[in-house]
Amino acid sequence: MHTRSEPADRDPDTSARPPLVRELLLVAGLFLVYKLGRLAANGHVEEAFRNAGHVWDLERALRLPGEGVVQSLLLHSHTLVQVANTYYATVHFPATLLFLVWLYWRRPRHYVWSRRVLAVLTGAALALHLLFPLAPPRMLPVAGLVDTGRVYGPSVYGDTPATDSMANQFAAMPSLHFGWALAVAVGLVVATRSRWRLLWLLHPLVTLLVIVGTANHYWLDAIVVTALISVAYAGLRLPGHAPVRRHLPWPAVAREAAVPAGAGAYASQALVPGTRTPPGYALPAQAPRAYARSGARR
């Protein structure tokens, strides 16, 4: 990724900050498209379960660890599995929203860049949701996993996935939970200069363990969204700083501009009687009278 980060103590570049009202409307519009797109992909039950079988078989062929390995760790503690369910249900949207708000006020250039990355990533993910409906592993009998949200709570999904009007439960591929968490972490690592900034990567790591441990996503869901966001980062580079214009006092600018670089010694000699100016050198505007007097003596 071709990115540069600003010093932590630098004032935000307000010239790069887009109008607030326009951004609010834009983000609200993107969120609406996101929700409508997921709902439009709902209802493909048979295809979603058929694709789930293919994904499960592909993961076993690639020798990926079973999702049950992570879930078994969560099920050792009733409190831990509830914390995981709560994280899945409550962190996704608020964390992304707070990330964008902070960037907007403190790092406007990074805000525009991250907003574009999120928009491209979400659009590509919605296209895959339409083209490849996928039932999550908690619905796949061969996986033998527990629907932790329904058993332990809290759950963000309805009891009847095929008619769930609040969310599309067959939009597992790719995982926007993990994709947005990765975008938030990368954006904060790039936009900050703290020696601890790499700890932001814990957010996508914890999100990955949560979405797999709660049986809402496959490993491949996270792998595919990582590939998508990598393409987005490759195509959308963080813009550089705007050139800084330095305002020098007048008329010092005019006097300095009249003397070429390295000619200061010649200019001083030309004002001294008995000296000559170098060939092709023009004296500053204030020197002709002194030069005329010295030439007259010769």
Structure notes:
The protein contains 13 helices and no strands. With 298 residues, it is mainly α. The radius of gyration is 31 Å and the shape is globular. It is found in: Membrane. InterPro entries: Aur1/Ipt1 (IPR026841), IPC_Synthase-Related (IPR052185).
Task: List the keywords.
mainly alpha; 298 residues; membrane; IPC_Synthase-Related; Aur1/Ipt1; 0% strand; globular; disordered N terminus
Quick recap:
The chain is mostly helical. Helices cover 57% and strands 0% of the residues.
How many helices? The count is: 13
Give me the count of strands: 0
- Overall 3D form: globular
SSE order:
HHHHHHHHHHHHH
Q: Can you tell me the residue ranges where pLDDT is under 50 for at least 5 consecutive residues?
A: 1-9, 243-254, 264-272
Distance between the termini: 69 Å
Query: What class, by secondary structure content?
Result: mainly alpha
Strand content: under 5%
Q: What is the C-alpha radius of gyration, as a whole number of Å?
A: 31 Å
Subcellular location: Membrane
Domain Inositolphosphotransferase Aur1/Ipt1: 55-234
Membrane topology: Multi-pass membrane protein
InterPro entries: Aur1/Ipt1, IPC_Synthase-Related
